[in-house]
Amino acid sequence: MTNQFYRILAAAFISSLLLFTGKAISQPRGEGWIVSGSNPNEYNMGVTTKVRYLGKPSAYITSKNVKLHGFGTYAQMSQTGDYLGKSVRMSAYISSKNITGASWAGMWLRVDGDRGKVLSFDNMQSRPIKGTSKWKKYETILDVPAGAKDMAYGVLLSGKGDVYFTDMNFEVLGPATGKTGNSGIPAKPENLDFEH
Global pTM? Predict the structure, then answer.
């Protein structure tokens, strides 16, 4: 897929997540976590003790239908706290089942400033989780720049399949370095002469 396609999808993803609490529905379990996304009703989400990693329960997102319109995310929001002005690594152990075709899953982190302005963002759309895979550690590194107000994060599933995750962790790597991830929006105007 082209970079432009990823940019369009990422921009749409960001737009739907900016107000993801508006689409939130009650969660079956998992204190502090919410069920959200562009179409969360097309997915089952919650916490299970039937699928474990190193004895720990996992959160899950499973598709309900064959034809899906939108994505679901099991997510959380928090203040920036001790992460403000730092470079942060977020990691989690994730496994997948039958994520095929155009479907994909990813761990995501978004850092917001005043009035919901996105300061940094990554949802793994350029390196999606697909197919059926055993437990694997995934990570993303982003800045929580000065002026950040809160963070939103979780795992998403867009399309059919199942994804499980557990043992999410945040680690400070040092001062902010300028890494803001892939917001899906170009850094400057591009292809203004339609040559590309």
Answer: 0.80
